[in-house]
Design a protein that fits this description.
Elements: E1 3-9, H1 15-25, E2 29-33, H2 35-38, H3 41-48, E3 56-60, H4 62-70, E4 79-83, H5 86-94, E5 101-106, E6 114-117, E7 120-122, H6 124-135, E8 139-142, E9 151-152, H7 153-156
Parallel strand pairs: 1-4, 1-5, 2-3, 2-4, 5-8
Antiparallel strand pairs: 6-7, 8-9
Helix pairs in contact: 5-6
Length: about 160
């Protein structure tokens, strides 16, 4: 299971992901893990059409993502796993997907969220999910673009 990056980005497949990270990571496939989008044909088509021709985009539910990785469905590919929130990361961990680091690259302003970095806004639920990930020894790296400074999200959120 060659995951080249696990990233939280609420904009999902967009230029920063496809071009910015894609030119550095050279993934063969972006796995977009999101139950809501996987259930919607038009949203799946929208996101699968958002990549370059040399990078495939697969939209899967959390369960399908975990099963595909467990079955080594993409074993010979470099995979870029993309989720919308820390909730999906926890669900994948609960389903046995192993990883030790998560890139947190974009959680944008919404009512009730507070800014912790220029591109990161969190509410109490997000903090609770990040606290759980931190407690499970998952490194939380805040970094919007590959050339951006890496920040320790656990320190920014004062997680214990």
């Amino acid at each position: 299971m060659p995951l080249v990056l696990v990233r939280i980005d609420d904009r999902l497949v967009h230029g920063q992901v496809v071009i910015g990270w894609g030119n550095v990571l050279h993934p063969d496939r972006i796995l977009l893990c999101n139950d809501q989008i996987a259930a919607s044909q038009w949203e799946r088509e929208l996101y699968t059409g958002g990549a370059t021709e040399d990078v495939a985009v697969e939209v899967l539910t959390v369960q399908e993502t975990a099963q595909s990785l467990a079955d080594n469905r993409f074993d010979d590919e470099r995979l870029f796993l993309l989720v919308e929130s820390p909730r999906e990361v926890l669900e994948l961990l609960d389903r046995g997907v192993p990883f030790t680091t998560v890139n947190v690259g974009g959680m944008h302003h919404r009512p009730g969220k507070q800014q912790v970095a220029p591109y990161l806004f969190v509410d109490e639920q997000d903090r609770a999910w990040f606290q759980e990930l931190h407690a499970r020894h998952v490194e939380l790296v805040a970094q919007d673009v590959p050339t951006g400074k890496k920040l320790d999200l656990a320190k920014l959120l004062t997680l214990k």
